[in-house]
Amino acid sequence: MNNYIIPANSKKSQLILGFFTPVDLILFGSGCGLTVLLLILVQEAAFGQMILILMPALVTGFLVTPVLYYHNVLQFIINVLSFVFNPRRYYWRGWCVKYDANEK
After folding, report:
1. How far apart are CA 79 and CA 1, in angstroms?
2. Does the model's pTM come out above 0.70?
3. Nearest to 30 by CA among 10, 50, 57, 3
4. Element spanning 28, H or E
5. d(C-alpha 50, C-alpha 60), whole Å
6. Backbone angles phi, psi at 19, to 5 degrees
7. DSSP string, 29-40
8. 47-64 and 22-41 helices, crossing angle to 10°
């Protein structure tokens, strides 16, 4: 028979800790690293400056926080940025019953 049932969460096992891709961890690690570097460089900071210093870790932490459909949204953002910054000419022909390559 060889009928196998694939569990719905089988892709989750390919993620680190079940939530993160390697790119997520690299992004978060670089944000935390930059924050630590800024904390070491700036010895005395006011409250507003401290918020700015902590922003790289906060923003990258927010970006990699596992939310519902996160990777789908990330792929959508990548597709939009690719569309905006890599302009191509797209031709719309609509729904055609008959397509003739010679007609333009």
Report:
1. 41
2. no
3. 57
4. helix 22-41
5. 16
6. -130, -30
7. HHHHHHHHHHHH
8. 170
Give the residue among 6, 28, 7 at the shortest CA–CA distance from 17.
28
CA 36 to chain centre: 23
> Which tokens hold the place of 23?
């790119």
Residues β-bridged to residue 20? 16
Judge whether 19 and 66 are in contact, CB under 8 Å. Answer: yes
pLDDT digits (tens, 9 = 90+) for 34-69: 999 999 998 888 998 999 999 999 999 888 887 777
Q: What integer pLDDT is reported at residue 96 of this predicted model?
A: 64
Q: Please give the structure tokens belonging to residue 93.
A: 């022909």
Kindly report the CA angle at 81 between 75 and 85, in degrees rounded to 5?
Answer: 150
pLDDT at 9 over 80: no
